[in-house]
Design brief:
PH-domain like; three-stranded antiparallel sheet; about 25% helix
């Protein structure tokens, strides 16, 4: 699960071993959406959020919503259009 707020992104994933990640918007350097053949078949995308410490992913989001979410993160993080892929 994930939650995108104007100041932070919270990502929680895992079943046996769970991970909670809190990413401040000031640390976001890029936002990238990708879609392999399996995700394309079901109309889904994965959003990758890059920071200086590494990258974090939000998996399997519906394609049209993924575009909106990616743009919203870019606005909150004040990323220029050339950094939004």
């Amino acid at each position: 699960t994930y939650d995108v707020q104007p100041l932070e992104i919270r990502i929680h994933h895992g079943i046996i071993t769970t991970h909670d990640v809190l990413i401040p918007m000031t640390k976001v350097q890029y936002v990238h959406a990708e879609q392999g053949p399996f995700l394309r078949k079901y109309g889904l995308q994965t959003i990758t959020i890059g920071t200086a410490a590494g990258s974090h992913e939000i998996y399997a989001i519906e394609e049209s919503f993924a575009k909106t979410l990616r743009e919203q993160i870019a606005i909150y993080a004040r990323i220029e259009e050339e950094d939004v892929v």
